[in-house]
Amino acid sequence: MSLLDNLNPPQLAAVTLEPRHALVLAGAGSGKTRVLTTRMAWLIQTGQVSPHGLMAVTFTNKAAREMLTRMTAMLPINTRGMWIGTFHGLCNRLLRAHYRDAGLPQTFQILDTADQLSAIKRLLKAAGVDDEKYPPRQLQNFINGAKEEGLRHTAVEAYDSFSRQMAELYGMYDAQCQREGVVDFPELLLRCFELLSRNAPIREHYQHRFRHILVDEFQDTNRLQYRWLKLLAGGGAALFAVGDDDQSIYAFRGANVGNMAEFEREYAHGAVIRLEQNYRSYGHILDAANTLIRNNSGRLGKNLWTERGHGEPIRVYEAMTDSQEAQWVVEEIRSLVAEGRQRREIAILYRSNAQSRVLEHALFSAGMPYKVYGGLRFFERQEVKHALAYLRLMENPHEDTAWMRVVNFPARGIGARTLEQLADIARASGSSLYAAVAQVPGRGGNNLAQFAALIDRMRFETQNLPLHEIVDHVIEASGLVPHYLQEKEGAERVENLRELVNAAAAFAAEDGYPFDAAGALAQTLPEAGIELPSPLAAFLSHAALEAGDNQASEGQDAVQLMTVHAAKGLEFEAVFISGLEEGLFPHENSILEQAGLEEERRLMYVAVTRARERLYLSFSQTRMLHGQTRYHMRSRFLSEIPEECLKWLTPKTGLAGLPPAGGSSWARSAWDDDRPARGDTGRSSKDAYYGSSQGYAGRRADAGVEVGGVLFKVGQSVAHARFGEGVIVSLSGSGTDAQAQINFGKVGTKTLALGIAKLDVV
Ligand code: ATP
Ligand code: MG
């Protein structure tokens, strides 16, 4: 079978386009990624380029892996060492190969977002800066925003004393990172950009090498990424970008959808290919997406159609509580699985990470295997980060962030006073904490010296060991495993530490590309004097960059949980979008201005278009968030979907909901009268938004239902002879038709006819 079979005419045209710049602009599921991957395979197969002569950039590690898998399926070539990855991953690779020219130590380590925040806090403390006036998070955003614009601290425009101070702190932060040999995420890109722009031989080498540069999800590139691409392409390479303006969902991180128009103007010059046939979703799902996104303004405009027929309607469910919603999701998944679907083909999507807890709880209680992407990811778990900190110190003992993390973990009698003393000495002499140890007197100094010796010893003892044995040795010798074994709840943590050993083994076996790439580079560019990064260094940057997928358990058939952001580019047979409530999705931070709201709508468009066959939408009247019960109305996005695409599983009350154009009048949901005064729900700035009480026309659901002389109300505790005690979560009907949904805790939620079931009010 030829590579080019099964492509429609515009897809074929895109895949086989002559080597020139081009833009593929097309909606979700129209085959953009497929076109991009097939084009790579075709270029190689027809001998137009060698596997090392092209570069492909995607947005997530999962997508990059997917691309490699698809390539191998199409072409029997060794994809190892190919330049396919994320912007961060590729920049890391370039910096590893040219660390000297980039002004970095060979062992430079990557700070993830959390590490970066602690480094910033440490900086503010050391500089004696009031962190109320200059909040660490704000400084972090300031720094990252500037870096994403390509600006060093001296280039930041500061008009007032506050931003001048922020810029100065930015400079101090960069100096601290440089001293410690660490780079944060945006620094990877900026440093690499600077390397290429300043160093002509290196730039020319890559410009000469990459004949084709292909970019997926182009709508989400930021300014610096775009400039980086332009720099690499130089005058010679063909830039092939695919994207969908309707799926631009990273504006909050500086993504600039304007790059598409600019690219068309500067590069594509009319070579814009549009794909309109959707191969992913059934008609109802596609209609829902198309109609929804039409509410946005300033779109480039696309029309998607499918040959697949309508398919099942989209099911909608309204719950009274978030846990009831989660229960329902689990029940539906059970029946999907009973119909023979694989769990890994089922995804539960949500707007914010915090929503996963309730869902996870329900899945866990039901014994349903699941896997969370994003959130607290494997490499971000406390114990794993501790282990990584030891490994990082072995690579580079001068990295103060890692030092502070584990110097007294497990406890070794090193107190806050000793550490302050150490920090003072280090600051005075401009050295790292490690280098200052010898100057701390007394018992504290002694303990510190023992810790430093432990690091040196572990380095010595693991010389020449294979990667996974290094990790295995360190989790024991550091005292981490013995420590957690003594802890009551430590078993799972020990398991994760052992999993880290597996992850190291898997990495060495499969993902060793940094060595290959640098090795290949060393041959093609001998003048650069490239040295290979140690396997440990490569593994540590993998751990910092990896989207946290725990690859060892990748094979398990598990339900997939992730935020909508993380689901970009992926597809599943069945998709649940939960928490469709005003304030949650669309998110309250974005709701008040049109640009924010439109980004939320694009996010909803992304979510809806992930589904191939089945789509489920749900919302709940109440939700526990950040320790408080919140009362939400259903999302406006639900009413932006044509009614004929939907099938309501719960009665559609017609009450909740939707702002008419202009958005001032809000209907209510059934529990309204039981709500605390609106201002009591803990919201502040956005309260006015929720506080509007026009347009309520609600049935008094809280009035209860009377059956046989007994009054049942929502929220009431009842007892059943067989199911035990439960709480009424909803009521419907009246008289002999009256029904109650009752949550019986252990046995779950049951719907009972009140006239028949013998219930006692307790
Ligand atoms: P997104 O915007 O969500 O990233 P996309 O445009 O990248 O979507 P793909 O993921 O490439 O779309 O394709 C969507 C689905 O349609 C995939 O399962 C793909 O294999 C399938 N597909 C694409 N083109 C064809 C075709 N010509 N024939 C059959 N299936 C196709
Ligand atoms: Mg895609």
Automatic annotation (TrEMBL):
Q: What is its EC number?
A: 5.6.2.4
**Region (Disordered) residue spans:** 659-689
Annotated Basic and acidic residues bias: 670-686
Which SUPFAM superfamilies does this one have? P-loop containing nucleoside triphosphate hydrolases
- Residues the entry annotates as binding ATP: 26-33
Q: Please give the InterPro entries that the UniProt record associates with this protein.
A: DExx_box_DNA_helicase_dom_sf (IPR013986), DNA_helicase_UvrD-like_C (IPR014017), DNA_helicase_UvrD/REP (IPR000212), P-loop_NTPase (IPR027417), UvrD-like_ATP-bd (IPR014016)
Please give the PANTHER family that the UniProt record associates with this protein.
ATP-DEPENDENT DNA HELICASE SRS2, UVRD / RECB / PCRA DNA HELICASE FAMILY MEMBER
Q: Per the similarity annotation, which family is this?
A: Belongs to the helicase family. UvrD subfamily.
Give the protein name, as stated in the record: DNA 3'-5' helicase
